[in-house]
Amino acid sequence: MTFSPELEARFEKFLAKYPADRKRSAMIPMLIYAQDEVGSMTDELIGEVAKRVGASPLNVNEVLTYYSMLHRKPLGKYHVQICTNISCLLVGGEELWNRACKKLGIGHKEVTADGRVSLEEVECMGACSWAPAVQVNYDFYHDVTMAQLEKLIDGLTAGKKPEEITEVQRVNP
Amino acid sequence: MLYNQPNPLEVRILTKRFGLPNSESIDTYLANDGYKAFEKALGMSPDEIINEVKASGLRGRGGAGFPTGMKWSFVPKQSSKPKYIMVNADESEPGTCKDRLLIEYDPHQLIEGILIAGLAVGAQQGYVYIRGEYRYLIDIVDRAIDEAYARGYLGDNILGRGIKFHLATHSGAGAYECGEESALLESFEGKRGNPRIRPPFPAVAGAYQSPTVLNNVETFCAVPPIILQGGAYFAGLGTPKNGGTRLFCLSGHINKPGVYELPMGFNLMRMINEVGGGMRNGRKLKAVIPGGSSCPVLKADECDLAMDFDTLAAAKSMLGSGGVVVMDEDTCMVKAALRIMRFYAHESCGWCIPCREGTAWLRKLLTRFHEGMGTRNDIVLIGDLAKNMLGRTFCPLGDAAALPTISIVEKWEEEFVAHLNGEPCPYDKSSRLVAA
């Protein structure tokens, strides 16, 4: 299996971080960065990472099913994650979640028909003091209002990139 | 740009560089006392460093509050295996968002704390385990590590002093449980994050079964100020046996939610009213989670207390991770209990049966209850189930799920009773969203 030169360079760095006889430590970081490029945990990807860290594909499968960010099915190009945990719940996270589901016509861990947007109701993402919070892929949105959520979803479904939706500010661009 | 305005009541020790231009760069750090503590520590013996940390009264900021200096002293001086420094940046306790800021605004303070810990225990390798969702922070720490290597603060011959220390980041992939120390170590080794039985503790058998110092981000960040200004100074900022300041994350129904650095022992009501700007929309206070969702919930009339580990323990709750979640009179406590339980049921790794089964059944019972289909017996059953989880698991997640539930059932039984008539939830009123 071939990866981009950037990812290969990253893998090389990852493998150099750990003691020579402890390459397996690189497994989870490799999986998550590879998933970003490949889209999901394909059998081919699992086999490749297993080979590189000196584990069996079964070992990798056993590990990846534990972690909520690693998934066997592809998500949307833009994965919209809405927190409804306690701090977000108290200030409307659940209302945002319900609206997003209705607007997109999809539910938890589902993808729109065109593959552009997927939704996930997530647990605490560490933005409690700026709740309610939303993440699109790895970008945070804080103090999200209903109007902002609507603009964000409208923009994404219309084919815009998150950075092009200027009405809604990402906090870590 | 800071996410919230500082408050004049803050005592900014760990956050003193927050808001400076390019505060994440090594140049800003060096221009503002950066790496001076490390240079001072180079002239100290390991025991002197550990004694200074002991004198500071610093206790683990991840939640358990174990004295940091003592933890470090458990690392064997002689070891045939390499020793490791492990940073827990898997911040995921609901209500907690402080480590994010410490890394985002001042990653070199963290690196300096790690370096000093390395000197104290004789470790030459460190890792920062960062939750996968914090990808941009991994990039920030990676850049800071590169800067530190380039300036000679990391490498095989640090500052030409013949000292060796290497540091790298490590990405998680989504799991609350991996914030628990032994599960973190398993995950670090490329396995499922199931907890380990202890003893042995990580100080003796941690990463790769080698002696390991494992602390929270904020704990490491407190070390440079302690070394630079002295343990006694840091201790004097807080209350007895609860040294220093800590970052409190205020969230929920208050006017000025935010992360504020306040002295240990700061009064909780003052925190809500004077730092947090009081209750939103003039509503009355009903409940406070004092330190992340794992803590027993306090009633409004229990909140006039000093926020330190011992006072909270005496009030049968916990100071925890610093996540102060404030709830007003319109909050449905059954729903709060349910949402918290849904979280633990989702995050239970399934290793220990009392936790795996207990959280799943409590989630089902609380869901049924909140939908108005509970019975009077269920109120007793919820309390009993939760109590039967206590102390029966490898790691504290079981207790963390049970404790808030027990406190809510005991303190707000009338709200459970009010859900018995099959009517829609009587507490959960209008929209909670703040108008834009």
Overview of the structural elements:
The complex is a heterodimer of chains A (173) and B (436). Chain A is 42% helix and 10% strand. By secondary structure, chain A is α+β, with helices and mostly antiparallel strands. Chain A folds into two domains: 5-64, Arc Repressor Mutant, subunit A (Orthogonal Bundle), CATH 1.10.10; 78-164, Glutaredoxin, CATH 3.40.30. Chain A has a four-stranded mixed β-sheet with strand order 2-1-3-4, with helices on one face. In chain A, a hairpin with a 2-residue loop joins strand 3 (134-136) and strand 4. In chain A, helix 1 (5-17) runs antiparallel to helix 2 and helix 3 crosses helix 4 (57-64). Chain A is elongated. Chain A starts with a helix and ends in a 16-residue tail after the last helix. Chain B folds into three domains: 26-237, Rossmann fold, CATH 3.40.50.11540; 245-328, Ubiquitin-like (UB roll) (Roll); 333-418, NADH-ubiquinone oxidoreductase 51kDa subunit, iron-sulphur binding domain (de novo design (two linked rop proteins), Up-down Bundle). In chain B, the strands form three sheets. Chain B has a five-stranded mixed β-sheet with strand order 3-4-2-1-5. Chain B has a five-stranded mixed β-sheet with strand order 7-6-12-9-10, with helices on one face. In chain B, strands 8-11 form a two-stranded antiparallel sheet. Chain B is 41% helix and 14% strand. In chain B, strand 6 (245-252) and strand 7 (258-263) form a beta hairpin. Chain B is built from 17 helices and twelve strands. Chain B has 436 residues and is α/β, with parallel strands linked by helices. Chains A and B meet through helix 2, helix 4, helix 5, helix 6 and helix 7 of A and helix 5, strand 4, strand 6, strand 12 and helix 13 of B.
